Amino acid sequence: MPDRALSTPLDDSFERYLQDKGKGRGGDGGNYRRNAARELERFAEWAAGDRGDDDWTGIVPDDVDREPTFDDLDERVFREYARHLGGDRGLKQNTVQTYYRYISAWCGWCVNEGYLEAHYAQRASAMAPLPEDDGRKPGDQQAWTSEQRHALTRHVDERARDAIETYTTLPEDTDPLDKQRARYAALKAARDRALVFVLAYTAVRVGELLRDPNDPRRRGVRWEDLSLDDGSMDVYRKKQQWDAASLPDPVISPLRSYRKLMAPPAERWPVFPTFDQRTLAELVQEELADRGERPAAIDERRNEYARDLLLALDEDIRPPSITTDGARSILQRLTEAAEIDIDHPKHDYLAPHGGRRGMGEVLVRAFGYTVAARYLDNSEEMVRERYSHIEAGELGDVATEALQEVDSIVG
């Protein structure tokens, strides 16, 4: 091991590692990169003595004044960090395992890159303090039940129908701004309905459907990506390639109605644009200024519209798609408005991933693992693992039936 590598400060390796693990051009995007960067920063602070118990002074000898380097790392360091994660931060068992894996993955990369001579983080003695898995099974993850799915889709459908009817039946002499407000309300309700139906019935991952600020390739589906006649939608899959996803019949009508109401000025418009007023105000002002409009003229133009979204539509100022976090906020609002009871330890609303898992349950029960795997864009092995609780339940029914038959014969 070169002395130069051993004397390298730990954080000098972070950027190269994150670029290798990141997504997009230059490795600047991706949720993994963001989460790994956070955990590496925490590890570096802990190693320097800036995080942990009051008596923790870090991994550098007390009589040495320098940053932690690779020469300071061995399996005892990672054992101590595992103990810190498990006991000092009050984290759940699975979370401790996850956070340690980020550091362990970096350690393995450092071995390959010549910073370390051994993968200390994976040694048994280093991992010994980690808590055991808490036993949570895939079936414990939230999955929308049929009753919840119907309650939510019925709520957003009724809400959209009412808003659209209110807008389309306004008297001809309605004040223009009042008419715009009604159109905006109808657009928002129609967007929410379309989003809920897509999440409920397509089983598309929310990260494939909407914008991810940490991954420049995931800019949210656009109208050009949809073929309502064919019942398909092009999405950028988790496996890092474009692929067609199915749009089943329940989804087509909400999307058609929504598109007709929106009348997007270009096919490159996002299907689910943000309605955030601050974002749209800044976007409209910047774009009109770039087109040569003066501030006074921009203000006058904006005053003609009840909402900046409507001005953006008229001027073809394309807004960004809502983010995955934005979708969660929308579903929180809609779940509460629909008065749907949620009994789940982690989510008190119908979370986006629950729609996908709910469809997975329906497909596995109706058609088996092979068909479900194709629809979910997963391997059959993974689907079997994630929905193993279904097979276990069915086997339990078989066992019960068998016992009843045997007992009746014996009796």
TrEMBL record:
Which keywords does this Swiss-Prot/TrEMBL entry list?
DNA integration, DNA recombination, DNA-binding
Please name the Gene3D superfamilies in this protein's record.
1.10.150.130, Intergrase catalytic core
Query: What does the entry give for GO biological process?
Result: DNA integration; DNA recombination
Q: Domain Core-binding (CB): where?
A: 5-111
Q: Which GO terms describe its molecular function?
A: DNA binding
Q: Which InterPro entries match?
A: CB, DNA_brk_join_enz, Integrase-like_cat_sf, Integrase_recombinase_N, SAM-like_dom, Tyrosine_recombinase_XerCD
Source organism's superkingdom? Archaea
The record, for PANTHER family, names:
INTEGRASE_RECOMBINASE PROTEIN MJ0367-RELATED, PHAGE INTEGRASE-RELATED
This chain's protein is named: Phage integrase SAM-like domain-containing protein
Q: Which organism is it from?
A: Haloferax chudinovii
